[in-house]
């Protein structure tokens, strides 16, 4: 699959982070290799004014950052329960996002207990929902914030 120039340049910008975190996200690995339908979804979503995005279970935040930059998101909420991965976001990803004009807020929270009162245009979650037993609560939260 061919990547468009915009996505290719964003992937290049995050190449060190991609290399460092490659085994942690099947979706990121597939996106980088081009064997993923996410590129088609991103192309479709880029037609809409998505200014605020929420990623539930963001991990290291690399995939979240790539998506946010590609879509021109202005505010990105990142939620994960792993403090080490959230530290990586603060140490490595945050400055790149800031330079791209994306304001981020990072929260160390269990997605089964979300109460943040926010409004978003897009909610993403890759490889997380199948691991939780609180589907109803998460879906109600997503419905509330969209």
Tally of separate helices: 7
Count all strands and give the number. 4
Major sheet: arrangement of strands = 3-2-1-4
The termini sit apart by 31 Å
Reading the helices and strands in chain order gives HHHHEHEHEEH
Task: Kindly state the percentage of residues in helix.
Answer: 40-55%
Q: Compute the average pLDDT.
A: 92
Specify the structural class.
alpha/beta
Task: Return residue spans where pLDDT drops below 50 for at least 5 consecutive residues.
Answer: none
**Into which percentage range does the β-strand content fall?**
5-15%
How would you describe what is shown here?
This protein has 146 residues and is an alpha/beta fold. The chain contains 7 helices and 4 strands; from the N terminus they run ααααβαβαββα. Helix 6 (83-99) links the parallel strand 2 (75-80) and strand 3. It is globular and about 40 Å long.
């Amino acid at each position: 699959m061919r990547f468009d120039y915009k996505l290719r340049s964003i992937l290049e910008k995050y190449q060190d982070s991609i290399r460092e975190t490659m085994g942690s996200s099947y979706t990121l690995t597939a996106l980088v290799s081009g064997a993923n339908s996410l590129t088609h979804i991103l192309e479709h979503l880029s037609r809409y004014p998505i200014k605020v995005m929420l990623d539930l279970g963001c991990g290291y935040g690399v995939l979240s950052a790539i998506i946010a930059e590609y879509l021109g998101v202005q505010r990105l909420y990142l939620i994960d329960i792993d403090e080490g991965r959230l530290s990586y976001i603060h140490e490595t990803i945050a400055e790149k996002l800031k330079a791209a004009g994306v304001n981020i807020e990072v929260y160390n929270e269990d997605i089964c207990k979300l109460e943040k009162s926010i409004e978003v245009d897009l909610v993403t979650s890759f490889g997380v929902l199948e691991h939780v037993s609180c589907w109803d609560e998460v879906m109600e939260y997503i419905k509330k914030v969209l």
